[in-house]
Amino acid sequence: MKYSVCLMLAGVSLTVFAIPSRAQQDAYPAVCQSEMKMPAPTHSSDMMNGMMKDHQKAAMAGMMKMDSDMMQGMMKDDADVAFVCGMIAHHQGAIDMANVELQHGDNAWAKEMAQKVIDAQTKEIAEMTSWLKDNAK
User: Fold this and answer.
1) Which of 33, 72, 105, 128 qualifies as a FRET site for 88, CA 20 to 30 Å off?
2) Per-residue pLDDT tens digits for 58-78
3) Domain segments of the chain: what residues?
């Protein structure tokens, strides 16, 4: 059983990298990206794709993209820039999660909360991106 669980978790990791990343990928500022090597995407996890619901696949893809961008951003030499880059990725992750709720959820309160998250985080990403333009070297 432990072997099956390990295989399943490994498949989830591979599945997440195989799912196309969010449409806003280009919105992550170039100044925040690093030369850090990321695992190559793979398409060998069809089994896990079949086991996960659409909202789970979408949430996992968003989470993995957020983690990847946060790691890149936090590698910046300047502590202030690293913080802002990491927060942009973190906020985008929240937006991606909220979009999953809007697309797949059915509870009115949860959908309203998701829209509030999108509105607030979008505004803050714009502020941080503007700060980067003026302050990142």
Assistant:
1) 105
2) 888 888 888 888 998 999 999
3) 2-135
